[in-house]
Each structure stands twice: as structure tokens, then as C-alpha cells.
């Protein structure tokens, strides 16, 4: 696959604005582990290899376990995620697939049990932001770094 264009070069001010939002969200008070689980999960749903690669690496660097990352695609069937994480992941799934789900009331009510109103807004913006990044990376055919194969 060949990259169509580099958004950082093509529209640096636009990407800079998106990066400012990222900086704000990273400091928003949501747990670092939750932040990376949400980003990785939305990227899985969207099929964004570039973002899955980036966010799973970042999550591991910040202490996330391999096991939880491997099982993230099947989070509903795994006991490894807290009730708060489950609510956030259900909200992530719902908003990432919003054309199909329309953000159902039962999913919102579960989020409301585990997050303050302020946190719900932050979580929702985080989900929107990663979906924007996914669309940018997928549409521009961004390619994640690949290590050269080891010599025989």
C-alpha cells in the first residue's frame, strides 16, 4: 500500500489543531489506561492498522498488558476489564458505529453510572477524535512503521 498524501505536510495547521485537542484530552483526567483502550478499540472497529499499531505500542509503553490488548476485540467476553472500562468500551463501540447504533439509551445509562457528566463529555470527544484520526489515516493510506526482516 502506498500513502496517498501526508496530512502533516498537506495541511499542517489543521493537523496542529487536532494535535492541540489530543494534548488537551491526554491531560483531561481520564485514566491513561482507559484513554489508550478507547483509542485502540475504535481503531480496531474502523480497521485502522496505523492507529492500532500506534496506540497499542503507546498503551504497552504506559504499562498496559499484552493480554488486555490481545483481548480488547473481545472485551465483552473477557473478565479483564473493569465495569468503568466496560462502560467506556461500550460507549466507544456505540459512537464509532453511530450510524448503526444511534447511541442507545441503555449504553448511555451505563456510562452515566461510571462517569461524571464532565467525564462523559471528555470521553465522547476522545472517541470522536480517534475516529477523526482513523478516517484521516485510512483515507490517506497511512502506513505504520515496519521493521526490516531479520537476516537469515
Describe this structure as you would to a colleague.
About 70% of the residues lie in helices and about 0% in strands. By secondary structure, the chain is an all-alpha fold. It has a single domain (about 15-140), classed as AhpD-like (Up-down Bundle). The radius of gyration is 16 Å and the shape is globular.
Question: Short description, anyone?
Answer:
The chain has about 150 residues and is an all-alpha fold. The protein is about 70% helix and about 0% strand.
Structural class category = mainly alpha
Mean pLDDT: 95
Helices, by number, come to 9
Strand content: under 5%
- Major sheet attributes: none
Helix content: 55-70%
β-strand number: 0
Radius of gyration: 16 Å
Per CATH, the superfamily is AhpD-like
- Level-1 CATH class name: Mainly Alpha
Whole-number count of domains: 1
The end-to-end distance, rounded to whole angstroms, is 26 Å
The appropriate CATH architecture is Up-down Bundle
What is the fold-level CATH name, i.e. the topology? AhpD-like
Which residue ranges are poorly predicted, with pLDDT under 50 across at least 5 consecutive positions? none
Shape category: globular
